[in-house]
Design a protein that fits this description.
Length: 419
């Protein structure tokens, strides 16, 4: 028997891992749905997660019907959490999670073992780095992920550079293009390898167009140059195979390069618990109760799939928290998964991947490429179950499609496609 196994185990009804927007909403919902024994574990010393460094507005338009900054949005949930007297453990790292819902956690070196009736995973996501996309060249200072630069500027009051280039048109990169411009930096351009922007249209307008910052599509960084400090980058246009076109390469002088090249769900604990992972979303495979393939373990928010709006994170997480409370208090009875959900033509992924068929549900999905004036169609062996007509479909925007419980009667397998 090792030292960890000798630590006496505590019992908890519901443990929520992560104190960002998903974890806050899940913990609150679990308490409001009758679970009085909820513990929220957060590795940072404060709650709120990534929202704490997002000082721009635009949060809460759906949830509160007003535009809030990230800290303001988080504060509303934190106040509600405190008002419900939900126990929290800040500065606490979850070291392991077993398939039978035993967590080992560390708080400033003190180890605890917790046996939970239900666990809600809400760890969020992390950014892709230079190493993840293999940009060749030297390793000077001045190369940051967009989120790291945002943290330095908004929480540490540190200016990361004065002459900036941005690779990737994800929303964080677009927002940082505006932020650095407002702080006096010159943003040379945003370069995007895709033939379309990977950020929300409103951020293209408000963060680039309003400040005359150029966006170059079908373009990528081919080399990083500089000794000590970044001196510039080489960029080139790419073909349909996304490989650089040699005679289009040019030099762009800059002392700072921000990378906004995608987010990865933080699922190391999820994998350790034996949960099945969707290869497209890099998040857990879940049913319409947000329960994973391991009974009693639920997943929600950006650790499940990367969202475009925090409001949908909160909505989704609240449902997961409510179902976790139900599971913990019901003798662990679960509904059978009877209806599979798969992506069809034009759809990159759908979620959840399985339905019980005994309740209404909302499908979340992303399309593979931009479309105009098309419909998202849900069929069961060729029979139309649901349809949503949209003037504009874009990979950057998550689509939500409500399906009534009556429409699921007799269904065996749903396919979601663009028609």
């Amino acid at each position: 028997m090792n030292g960890r196994e000798r630590i006496p185990a505590e019992h908890r009804s519901v443990v929520v891992v992560g104190g960002g927007p998903a974890g806050l909403a899940a913990a609150i919902a679990a308490k409001e749905h009758g679970c009085d024994d909820v513990l929220l574990v957060e590795r940072d010393h404060i709650l709120g997660g990534i929202l704490n460094q997002c000082i721009h507005d635009g949060f809460g338009l759906h949830t509160f019907k007003e535009a809030l900054s990230g800290p303001e949005y988080a504060d509303r949930f934190i106040r509600k959490l405190r008002g419900l007297h939900i126990e929290t453990a800040e500065g606490t790292i979850v070291l392991s999670l077993s398939p039978d819902r035993v967590l080992e956690v560390s708080t400033r070196g003190a180890l605890r073992r917790i046996e939970a009736d239900a666990v809600v995973l809400a760890m969020g996501c992390r950014e892709r780095t230079r190493g993840a996309i293999s940009i060749p060249g030297r390793r000077p200072s001045g190369v940051y992920t967009a989120g790291a630069a945002q943290n330095f500027m908004n929480l540490e009051n540190i200016m990361v550079g004065r002459n900036v280039a941005i690779l990737g048109s994800g929303d964080i990169g677009l927002i940082m293009a505006r932020r650095m411009t407002l702080e006096g930096a010159r943003v040379e351009a945003v370069f995007e390898i895709l033939p379309y922007s990977s950020g929300l249209p409103r951020n293209i307008q408000q963060c680039l167009n309003d400040y005359n910052i150029p966006l170059f599509l079908n373009t990528t960084v081919t080399e990083i140059l500089g000794a000590g400090r970044l001196e510039g980058i080489k960029v080139a246009q790419v073909g349909s195979d996304r490989a650089p076109i040699c005679d289009t390469e040019r030099f762009v002088p800059c002392d700072t390069l921000l990378l906004s090249v995608g987010l990865i769900p933080e699922n190391e604990l999820t994998r350790e618990a034996g949960v099945a992972i969707d290869p497209v979303t890099s998040g857990a495979v879940v049913d319409d109760r947000f329960m994973t393939s391991v009974p009693g373990i639920f997943s929600c928010g950006n650790v499940l799939h990367v969202h475009d709006l925090v409001d949908w994170v909160s909505v989704e997480a609240a449902q997961a928290g409510a179902f976790a409370a139900e599971y913990a208090g019901s003798g662990r009875r679960t509904a059978e998964r009877t209806i599979s959900v798969v992506p069809g033509a034009g759809v990159r992924y759908t979620l959840p991947q399985a339905l019980s068929g005994d309740q209404a549900c909302t499908l979340s999905l992303r399309v593979q490429e931009p479309w105009r004036d098309r419909s998202v169609v849900v069929t069961d062996n060729g029979r139309e179950v649901a349809r949503k007509r949209m003037m504009r479909l874009h990979p950057a925007e998550m689509i939500r499609l409500d399906i009534a419980v009556e429409a699921l009667s007799g269904c065996s397998s749903l396919e979601v496609s663009v028609g």
